[in-house]
Amino acid sequence: MEPAVLKALNAARDERRAVAVVTDLGDGRDRVVSEDDAIPGELGAAIAEAFRSGKAAPVSVSGRDFFINVHLPPVRMVIVGAVHISQALAPMASAAGFHPEIIDPRTAFATPERFAGIELSADWPEMVLAQRPLDRWCALVALTHDPKIDDHPIRAALEAECFYVGALGSRKTHGRRIERLIAAGADPDAVSRIRGPIGLPIGASTPAEIGVSILAEIIGERRKSRSAPV
């Protein structure tokens, strides 16, 4: 691999950007393509599909053979609220290839015993996210029902263009949440992206079932809207 290509890959990794190395199999030349680069035609479509799937693939375009190798940032699932649903969701998310993180300033809930093996921060989301900012490779799941805890990370997720933003609560609760966020200065168009009530409508009632519905919704959103690896 050429030093310039390796340097570009290292920079993309550090900046949590998606890139692909497109190799012309005819002459062996590599070029690094960003997720946001506009590549026309069949090659561009193949690169877009590689970003979506997260899988390397060969492709033939107009008699020329290429190999597309994608390099994608790990997907973070930031779960606000160390609740029963989180206890079910976090290990399932990990098994599905996400990197789950729990944030909850309520130290009675945010204990290592309840979340063994899961990254856990018993602090306010404002403090945690200042150190580990959200980006579009993140899914934000707000589960506390407490505006003092949930609202800031929801706004941060919208501003960071996280590929998924969901919040627990009834339609009435979600309506009040939208009103608060808009009154606090959030973009109404961005607020409309929040999934609330959270999760696919599968009739879930137990914490584990709700966790399944949330994870399924996140996977579906990730697959249809952004290139984030699972």
Automatic annotation (TrEMBL):
Pfam families linked to this entry: XdhC_C
UniProt cross-references to InterPro entries, sorted A to Z: MoCofactor_Util/Proc, XdhC_Rossmann_dom
Domain XdhC Rossmann: 77-218
Protein name as catalogued: XdhC family protein
Lineage: Bacteria, Pseudomonadati, Pseudomonadota, Alphaproteobacteria, Hyphomicrobiales
